[in-house]
Amino acid sequence: MNQAGKHIAVLSRQLNLFFSHELSETELTASELLYLAQLYTKDGLTQEEMSGDLSVDKAATTRTIQAMEKKGLVRREVDSVDKRAKKVYLTEKAYEYETRIREIQKKWVDFITQDMTKDEADKFAGQLKQMAARAKEINA
């Protein structure tokens, strides 16, 4: 287990490199892909929810969302319940990238899990999710 952190760090760096390469002919960045993927799953998240889910500081999320807004990928609206919060919504332009983003994600997962059975890959993904939740707890 003493090498797990190193391997997780390598996976993270390689994932960012892969996303950056795959997106090189688009206007999207690897960071933006992560936020778009969140919104494809549930549109209308608050910036705070997005930050918490990705364990990214709020300022970084704000900068990325602002850049995405300038590109016409998202729009922000003040939450009708909590006026201090801003909800983020996808634009039609962002939906044009959805198929490509899902293909890129699938290509990554298929490649890194090619030597695993579906059950092994699913179990490992579940274990990573559990580990990520624990890591959030210790740093809360």
Descriptive account of the structure:
The protein is mostly helical and 140 residues long. 66% of the residues lie in helices and 9% in strands. The protein contains 7 helices and 3 strands. The chain has a 3-stranded antiparallel beta sheet with strand order 1-3-2. α3 crosses α4 (58-70). The chain is globular, with a radius of gyration of 16 Å. The mean pLDDT is 93.
Q: What is shown here, in short?
A:
The chain is built from seven helices and three strands, in the order ααβααββααα.
Termini separation (Å)?
23 Å
Helices, by number, come to 7
Structural class: mainly alpha
Helix-strand sequence = HHEHHEEHHH
Uncertain residue ranges: none
Largest sheet: 3 strands, antiparallel
Which bin fits the share of residues in helices? 55-70%
| Major β-sheet strand ordering | 1-3-2
The fraction of residues in strands falls at 5-15%
Shape call: globular
Q: Determine the mean pLDDT.
A: 93
Radius of gyration, in angstroms, nearest whole number: 16 Å
**What's the total count of β strands?**
3
Supply database-style keywords.
single chain; 140 residues; mainly alpha; 3-stranded antiparallel beta sheet; globular
How is this fold's topology laid out?
Blueprint: H1 4-22, H2 30-41, E1 45-46, H3 47-54, H4 58-70, E2 74-78, E3 86-90, H5 92-96, H6 98-112, H7 118-138
Antiparallel strand pairs: 1-3, 2-3
